[in-house]
## 1
Amino acid sequence: MSLDDEINEAGREFPIEKFKIEIPDIPIVSSKDSVISAIKYIEKVHDNAKNGSGAIVGIPTGFVDLDKTIGGLQGLVVLGARPEINMSAFALNIAEYASVGYDGFKGCKVVYVKPGEDHAFLTRRMLLSKSRVNLNNMVEGFLCERDYPKLTNAAGKLANNENLKYITSFLSMGTLQHHCEVLQESEGLDLVIIDKLQNLDNFKPISGSSSSMYNRVQEIKYSLMEMKSRGIAVLVLSEMKKKQRKRDSLETDDLRDWGILEYESSPILLLERDEENFDNLNSSEVFGVNINVRNNYWGKHSETINLIYLSPYGRFESATKVGY
């Protein structure tokens, strides 16, 4: 066989197409287009304020004072709380408001992610919260006659809510990103709530070198930033460090795995019990809660929002809304 024949044979066995590197298309935005987007954003803020809806350009949380401070949920937002505060209840309240809508807001597409939880349990919590039915009465089987119409009314609204979906399987951040992108392209997706960061498969105990965990952490950061770049707002719940300061107010470095989100997230919402105000409310069932807003690039860098927590219903309310 001649040299030319050998070269041709090698070409058939190992076609050059196999060795081509696929380079993905990436958007390259001109300064002009970027300025147009910036102006549209500013006009939206102005129009919202002019129409009385406030300078809210993100997704409304349902808590007026909070929305005025952060402009609604947009980009990557982190939520943490002391153990005595049920931050999952707070996140479910936001999921309800954002998906069902209220006060002229029609609602948007929301995915609530809680690995290892029964979706029916989450729906029960939301149902009892929306209907203001005592959770303990339901658990003990002592619902009052007046509870049933409230439950029926709330159930009707939630049953007709096609905006909210649950993901309760254990999965990695990369897998979650993939499913969210598919949902966004097929049905639309505006908000993802991850309850909570440490429940993702990326934090499962693994054997091997520390570089393996490093790669998993990098996957979380990359996936969150990719979702953010696609216009999906992400609310991430995070545990607090066990040895957090007890006497001082919570700060961002009290969050577990804070290094993963330190530079990408804004704002940070830290929930803790209000020990100074609402003395007449301080009990195990109804008490004041502060949202300490940190790293807020939207407006005031730091701010405190007052809420009231109605523990029997798993319901948070703005302090100004309920008259405190």
## 2
Amino acid sequence: MEFVYLSREQDNYKKQAALLLQENFKSYEKSDVALSEMDELLDSEIICIVLIKENEVIGMIGGEPTYSGNVWELHPLVIKKAYQHQGIGSKLLAYFEKEVHSRGGMTIYLGSDDEDDLTSLSNRDIYENLYYHLENIKNKNNHPFSFYQKNGYKIVGVVPDANGYGKPDIMMAKRIGTINK
């Protein structure tokens, strides 16, 4: 397997990565939307890394700097279904973290949507007793927040109705380094 920094010239890999988005995220079901997202990911400020096995894209991770480069937003992390639950996501995440650290990043954050009733935060009004709900979150059906926790990320907040009533976006972050003063 090989990590490759994706560029606009790598059209074959770009199309394969767009297909990964389509197959794994509802918001990218249409090919033009997935390809448009890939164009955005290939902006000069953004890191876009694909993992290649035998000339096939089996995973992708992207992110962009915010807060003057101190903080990076991770978006997206996607693994081909046949390769999920084999440590590929953790490898991509670790590689991305090292790259962000080398560019002076201190923290990586992400939002992990729950549009499909996968956690105890969904399908309810969590504004009432918000911190209680966050502290007692349960993973009901393989929501990615558990994957990120296993990789050192902490839940730092939630946007309760980000995707409609009872469909929250779970905010997570991890400190990966420090800034020299």
